[in-house]
Amino acid sequence: HKSSHSFPTRRSSDLRRSPAAALAARAALGPEFLVAAEAMWRPYFRQHAALPHGHALLRAALAGVDRVRPATAEQAQSLANLLAMRGILAADDGDLADAEHDLTTSLAAGPSERFAADASLALIRMHADDPALAVVHTQQALARSPTPDAVRLRLRGDPALAELQSDPRWAALVADPYAQ
Description:
By secondary structure, this protein is mostly helical. The chain contains ten helices and no strands. The radius of gyration is 18 Å and the shape is elongated.
């Protein structure tokens, strides 16, 4: 006799392994699927996306998630977070057009604070070779964050953005406001 706790665990495992199962769940749950999908995929995204099969699995699972229309504010934020995940993965995979679309759509829809910071960082990284655009995305990231000093610190310490330090506009944006 299995405990009731093992049923959701088994279902999450089934959904992670089978895109067909995920599609069936999306159809059955409607917009509530967004909250369930975010709860299921957020830990995997944070802990396992760097594994060799992680990107492909997550991108397949998140395909079509934008076709689900949220009915509540919680569902809308879950959709924004799922789009941020998908956009970050696309950026990491070099699919820049898909990444740009998902990241900007996510940020416009209002993801959680952490996903907003992650999506902003992905956009800035994508445009690191275009300082003017990197400055625009940095300004937006700082404006939307409730903790702009933490964003500055994160940007200053990102090795992928080291070359931007030579641009005085970008360097001024991310400078430590408390440095003397």
